Structure formats: structure tokens, C-alpha cells
Amino acid sequence: MIRTVLGSLVALAGAASAVLSPFRDWYDGRVGRAYRVRDLFEGITPTESGVLVSILLPFLAAAVLVALGVVLRSRAVVAFAGLVVLGFTVLWMVRQGQANGSLVAAGDGSGLQVGVVNALAGGVLMLIGAVLMGGRRSRRERKAGRGPERETVEPYAAPAPDRVDTWPPTREPGMSVQTSPWPEPEVDPYTGPDPRDPVHPPHPPPPQG
Fold first, then answer.
1. 27 φ, ψ to 5°?
2. Which of the residue ranges 1-10, 65-74, 197-206 has the most confident prediction, judged by mean pLDDT?
3. Do the domain assignments include residue 66?
4. Is residue 120 included in any domain, yes or no?
């Protein structure tokens, strides 16, 4: 998080430096906004340029890309904006060197001046900000960062009040509990003592009158 904030601030500082550079002197007291964009491709001319068609235009587009990249946390967009600023600045240096025969940096302001330094510094700061920024993590990376998903454990459901599980099973009225796997033998109805039993002889028949 800290790296993302720091990278965003550095990239925005680079964008501000790049946008400010065309309003400062670039070469021999000539401000950057006086150079037309077409001069970078066709050759430097003394013709003055309007603001909207000057070298300020690509720098403004780069600043908008930086702001968009910071909002989207896109390192690629911010880096591309830095390359745009550096590319147009280097292209201007090549065309200016061709027009003058060479590029010089003198202390009396007769050569390269502070506006070019601002443009180069702005592009470099954008690239540094893109490196420092933390890009948006993919869905797989976010899932891996959270760790393995926990299994959902269903809460214990208590048995219904009209059917309570007990052990050993309770016997309801009119029902017998069978603990043996074999069927219980049927009990014959009682018909009195066995006449063959010596302990309990049968009663003699009553006397007949």
C-alpha cells in the first residue's frame, strides 16, 4: 500500500514537471511551446507555434495517462506516459541538433536550458513511479493470498422433540424390547397343572351323590 502511494506521488510529480517544461526556455531563450509538433517530424523551423499544436500537446496527453494509470493502479499506463515524454524530448533534441549542427549546454543560456531538463526529469519520474507502484492483483493471486478456503460446517441439528434418541431403546406401552437376534418363542396359554407332574397331581374329581 505504501509503495503504491509513493509511486503514484512520484508519477504525478513527473507529470507536473513534464507539463511545466514547455512554458520554460528550451534552447537559446526559445520556450518549449514555441516548437510545433510537426517540427519534430519535419525539422525545426523558426515559425512560432500555437499552444494547442505545440510540444505541450503530447505532454498534456501523457499527464492525462498518468492520472488515469494512478486511478486504475496500472503500471503499464504510467510507464507508457513516461516513454511518450522521453520519446518526444529526445526527438526534439535530435531535430534541434540537426538544425544547429550540434547541441551545446552553456552557462550563458545559449544552448540547452532548464525546460529540457524538466521534460527529461518528468519522463524519468514517471518511469520510477511505475516501478514503485503496485499493480492490481489478479483474482487467482487474491485467492492465494487469502489462503485455503475453509470447509463449511453445518450446525448441529437437535432431534425433533417427539422423537428422542435414547440408548438402550425404551419400550413403549404394548411393545416388547427384543435384545436377541433370534425370534422369541411363542408362549402357550396357561391351561392348568400338567396331570403328569408328580409334584402337582391333578385334583380328584368331585364325588357324585
1. -155, 125
2. 65-74
3. yes
4. yes
DSSP line for 2-67: HHHHHHHHHHHHHHHHHHHGGGSEEETTEEGGGSBTTHHHH---S----GGGBTHHHHHHHHHHHH
On whether the pTM is more than 0.70, the answer is no
Full residue range of the structural domain in which residue 34 is found: 2-137
| Whole-angstrom distance, CA of residue 14 vs CA of residue 128 | 9
Q: What is the pLDDT of residues 68-111, one digit of tens each?
A: 999 999 999 999 999 999 999 999 999 998 888 877 776 666 77
Output 43-52 pairs: Cβ under 8 A, ≥24 positions apart: 43/95, 43/98, 43/99, 44/95, 44/96, 44/98, 44/99
Q: Number of structural domains, the chain?
A: 1
Q: Is the pLDDT of residue 159 over 80?
A: no
Residue 96 maps to a domain: yes
- Tell me the sheet residues that pair with 54: 36
Q: Give the integer Cα–Cα distance in Å for 179 and 43.
A: 109
Confidence of residue 141 (pLDDT cuts 50, 70, 90): very low
Cα separation, 58 vs 69, whole angstroms: 16
The amino acid present at 52, given as its one-letter code, is L
- Give the span between the Cα atoms of 68 and 115, in whole angstroms: 25
In a domain, 18, yes or no: yes
